[in-house]
Structures are given as structure tokens and as C-alpha cells.
Design brief:
The protein has five helices and five strands, in the order E-H-E-H-E-H-E-H-E-H. By secondary structure, it is an alpha/beta fold. The chain has a five-stranded parallel β-sheet, sandwiched between helices. Helix 3 links the parallel strand 3 and strand 4. The longest helix has 13 residues. The N and C termini lie far apart (27 Å).
């Protein structure tokens, strides 16, 4: 599938922890969003290169093969994905990591463990209403 329009209510989740991924998928689908996902940085990079841009990317930092910081750069350098909001969802709590992600182009940074309602409120800042 080469750069065909995606649903405006789609969220691309990049998360290597299957338990967290299942919670995120459940939460997002209940809110009416379509969810696609990648479990590592290589799969995420391939998805970004071959698929239409989603409405939002929910991105972990610590990923196998290619980390979340590099994924931000890949997204921001892809003309069809460059303006997609990126919300980091990560256990990396050091100020330098937060600053690095925001400086690289992330729109928000949420720490794990996360509160589901707070995460959804942060995502709603960037997503069109699904209802």
C-alpha cells in the first residue's frame, strides 16, 4: 500500500511490550480510533515508508533495532508524515530524554506507568473527535 489516504481517525502505535500494546489498542478502539501498530523500530520504519500517514503516532522510546528518537527523525523527514502529531509514551523519565524527544519534534511526552484517562485527554488535544 503506497501512500493512500488513511482514516483521519487512525493511530499508529509503536510499542514493544505486548501487555501495554493490548491496553492501548483496547483504550483507543473504545474511543472509536482505528489502530495500527509496530512492535519494533525496524517494523515502524518500514510502515512509515510504505503507508499513509495516520492522525497521530503514539511512540515508545526504548524499542528493539531503532529507538524512538530515531523514529521521530524518520517521521519528521518523511514529507507525507512530517506534520503528524507524535506523543511519546515511555518509561524514560530523565529530563534530558524528555528534552531530546521534544526538541526532535515530539508534540507531547507521557511517562509510564500512565493513567488511561490522562493519556486519552492528551491524545484528544491532537486527534479529531471520533464521535
Amino acid at each position: 500500500m503506497q501512500n493512500t489516504p488513511a482514516s483521519p481517525l487512525s493511530v499508529f502505535v509503536v510499542e514493544d511490550d505486548d501487555n501495554i500494546l493490548q491496553v492501548l489498542k483496547f483504550m483507543l478502539k473504545r474511543q472509536g480510533y482505528e489502530v495500527t501498530h509496530a512492535s519494533d523500530g525496524r517494523a515502524a520504519s518500514a510502515h512509515i515508508e510504505t503507508n499513509a500517514a495516520p492522525a497521530l503516532v503514539l511512540l515508545d522510546v526504548m524499542l528493539p533495532y531503532v529507538d524512538g528518537f530515531e523514529i521521530i527523525n524518520i517521521i519528521r523527514n518523511n514529507p507525507t508524515w512530517a506534520t503528524v502529531p507524535i506523543v511519546m509514551l515511555t518509561a524514560k523519565t530523565m529530563e534530558q530524554d524528555i528534552v531530546r524527544a521534544l526538541d526532535a519534534g515530539a508534540n507531547d511526552y507521557v511517562l509510564k506507568p500512565f493513567q488511561p484517562n490522562e493519556l486519552l485527554a492528551r491524545l484528544r488535544r491532537f486527534l479529531p473527535s471520533s464521535r
